[in-house]
Structure formats: structure tokens, C-alpha cells
Amino acid sequence: MSDGTGLKNRGHTQADVEDRRAAVEEFSGSKLDKITQCCFDAETASHNCENMIGSIQVPLGYAGPVKISGEYANGEFLVPLATTEGALIASISRGMSVINAAGGSRTRVFGDYMTRAPVLRVRDLEHACQAIQWIDAHEDEIKAAVASTTSHGKLAKIEKFPMGRGLYLRFSFETGDAMGMNMATIASEAACKVIEEATGAVLVSVSGNMCSDKKPAAINMIEGRGKTVVAEALIPADIVEAKLHATAAAIVETNIRKNLIGSSMAGTLGANAHAANMVAAFYIATGQDPAQVVGGSMTLTDCEDVNGNLYISVRMPAVELGTVGGGTGLPCQTEALNIMGCKGTGKARKLAEILSVTVLAGELSTLAAQAAGQLGKAHAELGRGKKCQ
Which pTM value belongs to this model? Predict the structure, then answer.
């Protein structure tokens, strides 16, 4: 298979990349001097990018350290963040400083399942019921089919949603330390093949969108997708006033009127100040699938005034990340994960807990800035810079 330049789009030798880049320069009339400056060889990205011509660099900074007391993440952590938005890392760092002064944060993982939801065509409602009955009676056979496709994944649950001449099956998988989307897709195809042969139902699509992958969805908010993580902190009143220049009551009101009521009026899935900002910077830095920032955008932020002290918490129902596979093996992303001690097996839930506290810090800082009327000033001072010459 070739692209419009006539070159094979899967070639990943250095010569392939250079030939393809030269063809792009000729076609576009644009000289690609900076894109050529890549810190890894072409073969390293052979499973990450087709039609490779070089790399794009994104500024990388860090926030923290931040104190975390979690089930998997315990201690102080520096958090690498890749972004082009001025003031973002400064804001997160401020939030982390406040959390540290208050004694740190606490976090827990409450669910860990990647989902894939194929849709099958059935003849009618009776056929749908027959297929469901067969699935219920032969779950071990379906699990065996899944096990034949992966040594790391495990089918945990099958939910059934009949709709007319369609039958939607929402498979939930344990995927170890991989984000697991490809694993879930391959396993779901194998499971559906067994179901097709036994019931006569016909697979229409391995994804019927009830997964729901890379789209905001109520089912993911309620049941979770990937890791469901909650983080919290209690900030004493004197720290709120000294470091955030606000009061617990003012921040709580801002959260209620902005995040809860305003989000409800807009019909958003999720109620937060800007959780997607932290998730995007974290995902880009650590080699995650950036499209999964959608799940991060469904974060719920809660604030309470506890005798003048500020309690703040975030619930993240769809943290879709991994510490093996995908882009986590690229050199820069590997180093970013190593900063947090999160590269390799046994680290994914730890990484999810660190992300949740990063989001908590960003939410705390931004809500406080808005409550104190300082958001515009911060962006004016930190978010504007000179244009590159």
C-alpha cells in the first residue's frame, strides 16, 4: 500500500523516512528542517506511526513534588507534563504546593476494566433472548476464547443490551498494565466468533459504541472505563487564605455555581473546571493515547466547607492509561514515566493515582483563582510570550 507520493507507508528504515520526507518537501514546497531532528531511530516507532517523516516536539515541564498517600502511589512525586499552554504547569504546581502544606493528598482506585461493546444482528426479539440465554450458559467457553488471544487479559463481565434486531454486548476486561484497547478488540472478535457459530447471531461491528471509546458517555461515568480513581485533600482555612487568597466558602460557591449548576445547564458529561487540561499534558508526556482525554473530561469535582476548612475531591470514572505498550515504550515517554517510577509492569494503577492528584491540584488552583478573581491576571502574566522568529 502506498500514499499519494508513491512511497510505501509502512517503511520504517531511516532511508524510508528520509525518502518520504523528501517527497513531502517536494510536494508541499516546504522545507522540513526541524521535523528531521528526532531523538530516536525510525524502527523504534514502527508500531506507533505510519508514513513517518520525523517528529514533533512539545515543551515538557514538571509540577511538584506532591505528597500522595494512595494504595499504589505513596511518597512524593514529580509529575512531567507536556503542554503549549502557558500558566498550566504553574497553576498545577501552586495546587500541589497547597496540598503539600495541608499534609498531602489521598487517593484510591475503585475499578479497573477496559470495555469493548460489539453489536450483533439477530432475527427478532426471540432470537435475541435465545442468544442471551446461550451466552449466560456458556460464559466459560467465551472466556476460553478470550484467553486464547492474550496472556495478559481476562474477561470479567458481559452485559447484554437487546435493541430491536440488534444485540449489544458490553465486555469488561482486566488488561494488566496495558491500557488494553487493542487487547480488548482482538479478544472481543474471538468471543463473538464463538457466539456467532453457536447462536446464528451475526457480528455487525466489533464496536457498537456502547464501549464507549473516545466519546463522552453516561455509561462510562456510571460504570467506569479503564480505571475509576478518586483523590481528595483537606486544606486548613489558614492555608486557603495565605496561599490561595480566598476562603473555603468562596471556593465552594464557585464550584457549585460553575462546575455543578453551570455544567448542568450546559448539559456536559462531567463537572469540573478544566480536568482535560491536566489529563492531556500528562497523557502526551507519558505516551498515552491522547484521544482518551475524553474520559478525563468527565471528571467530577466536589468542594465542601468543613468548619472553614476546604475539602476538595475529584472522581475520575474513565482513566484510560497504561505503563506498557502503545507509546509508553518511546524513549522520551519512557524517561517521563521513569521520573515517577511508573514504567513497566505493576505500575498502571500507581500512574492513575498520580494523575488523579495532578488533576486535583489543577482543579484546586483554578477554582481558587476564579474565586479570588485572579485567573485572567495569571494568564496575562504567564500565558503570553514572544512569537518564534
Answer: 0.92
